[in-house]
Write a structure and sequence with these properties.
By secondary structure, the protein is mainly alpha-helical. It is about 65% helix and about 0% strand. The protein has a two-stranded antiparallel ribbon. α4 packs across α7 and α5 packs antiparallel against α7. About 35% of the residues are buried.
Length: about 260
């Protein structure tokens, strides 16, 4: 049995395994609290589902690109900082939920039953990603303009790797999480659906991870989005690209400064 467990962890990869461990721990604690107030089948509608999806998504994407990086000869890295970042994320989200009640009870599931509803989910997803990218561009630009110490840790790595997406100060990480919470609250027609929120977390964590990796594969978002493609130049060459996904704001800024 121990050997089977080791094979299982090796197949998953250390990052995915770490994410699973964090999520399962939080699931256990959250379940003990929620089961007293709700039916078992409604646990998947509880407040902790969104951070669980984000944690597992980050863990999976980092592990995927880390495998490709190690094929290039990059050395394995200690996972302590990654686990610390994930745990700190859960502590922050838990504290936020104590202050600002999560909207879980008000959210529609968003499971489409028609083509129109599929379109609504896609629009919810796209609007959230565009808003996240727009708002954090302003924060990112501001941190560089002021030389904010909170952002310097994220630029302290000599060799930029996929897992460095989570290498940042508590303040820097908190700002990203708060922006994400903000754009996840509402859609154009009311509370954002659970499905759109989950898809948002999956896609955003993928794009952020891919923008930091040195691996040539999987070349997905870099193929289509300027911000994802140019982010390594921002880190390694000091290029003044502050938009994480798209490139129109950096292009407009450069034009205005010319």
């Amino acid at each position: 049995m121990p050997q089977a467990g080791m094979v299982f962890c090796d197949d998953l990869g250390p990052t995915t395994t770490a994410g699973l461990c964090v999520v399962m721990s939080m699931f256990g604690m959250a379940s003990l609290l929620e089961i007293q107030r709700t039916e078992l089948q409604n646990l998947l509608r509880a407040w902790w589902v969104d951070p669980a999806v984000a944690t597992l998504s980050f863990s999976f994407w980092i592990d995927l690109y880390d495998r490709e990086e190690r094929k290039l000869g990059c050395s394995p890295r200690d996972g302590a900082s990654l686990i610390s970042a994930l745990l700190l994320y859960w502590v922050g989200v838990g504290a936020w939920c104590c202050v600002v009640p999560p909207p879980a009870a008000q959210l529609p599931d968003g499971i489409p039953t028609s083509l129109l509803q599929v379109g609504e989910v896609v629009v919810e997803l796209l609007v959230g990603i565009v808003l996240y990218d727009f708002i954090f561009f302003l924060i990112h630009w501001g941190m560089h303009a002021r030389g904010a110490a909170a952002h310097k840790r994220h630029h302290s790595m000599g060799e930029l790797r996929a897992r460095d997406v989570l290498e940042h100060s508590a303040v820097d990480g908190a700002l990203q999480v708060l922006v994400n919470i903000m754009v996840q609250r509402h859609s154009l027609w009311g509370p954002k659906s659970r499905l759109a929120r989950a898809l948002h977390n999956i896609v955003v964590t993928w794009m952020l991870t891919e923008s930091h990796t040195c691996a040539p594969t999987f070349y997905v978002w870099r193929r289509w989005l300027e911000g994802v493609r140019r982010h390594r130049a921002h880190h390694l060459q000091g290029a003044q690209y502050y938009q994480q996904f798209f490139g129109y704001l950096d292009n407009a800024r450069a034009t205005a400064l010319d």
